[in-house]
Amino acid sequence: MLSDTDIMNKISARLKELRLKQNISRQDLSISSGVSMSSIVRMEEGEIKSFESFIRILRTLGKIDILLPLVEEEEISPNEYFKMMQSTQKKTRKRASKSKLTTKQEELEW
């Protein structure tokens, strides 16, 4: 099992590798992603501080699809949906109609 630091270092190395494979300079990546050049340098050295900047760089490098499994909603089966709907329906009490109340009140008045 990799430590958190090892994972960040591997991600950082991969970002740099992707940038270099696409022949993009840090300055060009900074301009096209809207992320400062110092942030890009820090990311490539293993210091990812801003998740928003990380997403912008992935999008600019054409690798945003890496994160898609994290944001896709799981599909539920029809049975699970039915059970979920049954559990959320509340049992409501029925009130007596006005007509019955009126006749009882009239009887009490006599």
The CATH architecture classification of the domain at 4-62 is Orthogonal Bundle
* String of helices and strands: HHHHHHH
Compute the CA-based radius of gyration: 30 Å
Helicity, in percent? 55-70%
Low-confidence stretches: none
| Count of DSSP strands | 0
Number of helices: 7
CATH topology of the domain at 4-62: 434 Repressor (Amino-terminal Domain)
SSE class:
mainly alpha
Distance between the termini: 85 Å
CATH class call of the domain at 4-62: Mainly Alpha
- CATH homologous superfamily (4th level) name of the domain at 4-62: lambda repressor-like DNA-binding domains
Main sheet properties: none
**Mean of pLDDT:** 84
Strand percent estimate: under 5%
Shape: elongated
Short overview:
With 110 residues, the chain is mainly α.
Q: How are the SSEs placed, and which strands pair?
A:
Blueprint: H1 4-21, H2 26-33, H3 37-44, H4 51-60, H5 68-71, H6 78-88, H7 98-109
Describe the structure.
With 110 residues, this protein is mainly alpha-helical. It has a domain of 59 residues: 434 Repressor (Amino-terminal Domain). Helix 2 packs across helix 4. The longest helix is centred in the first third of the chain and has 18 residues.
